[in-house]
Amino acid sequence: MNAVQPALDGTIPTPKIPAARRKAEDFETWLDEVWPYYVTAAATGRTYTIYEVAEEHRLPEPPDSHMWGRLATLLREAGYHRPVGWTTSPRPTSHASGLRTWRGTAAARREQAA
C-alpha cells in the first residue's frame, strides 16, 4: 500500500495518474499516424532513436510492440534514415538493452528543405 501525504489543510490530494498511451487498432492506421513524425525527425539530420521520437510526441503504441522495428525498417528502405550506432534504451522495461540510433539521410534533409 502506498502512503499518501495529506496537504497542510488536511485534504487528500488527487492522485497523479500518468496518461496512458493509446494503442492503435491496426498496423496501417498506426503507420499512417506515426510516419510523419519520423520523416520530420529524419529531415533534421539529428541522431535519434525510435523510442525518443515516440516519447517526444506521445505517439500511440502499435498493435504489437515488435512493429516499432518494422517501422524503422520501412523508414530505412524508403530512404529516410540510416543506422549510425547504438545506445542503451531509456525505456524502463528494456533493462538498458541495446538500441539502434538513426540519422536522416541527405535525401530526407533535402526533401524537407524543398
Characterise the protein shown here:
There is one protein chain. The protein has one domain: Winged helix-like DNA-binding domain superfamily/Winged helix DNA-binding domain (Arc Repressor Mutant, subunit A, Orthogonal Bundle). It has helices spanning 27-44, 50-57, 67-77, 106-113, and strands at 47-48, 81-88, 98-104. The mean pLDDT is 87. It contains four helices and three strands. The chain has a three-stranded antiparallel beta sheet. It has 114 residues and is α+β, with helices and mostly antiparallel strands. Helix 1 packs across helix 4 (106-113).
Using only C-alpha atoms, the radius of gyration works out to: 18 Å
Examine the secondary-structure arrangement and name the CATH architecture.
Orthogonal Bundle
Mean pLDDT: 87
Please give the number of β-strands: 3
Key phrases:
4 helices, about 15% strand, 3 strands, Arc Repressor Mutant, subunit A, about 110 residues, three-stranded antiparallel β-sheet, alpha+beta
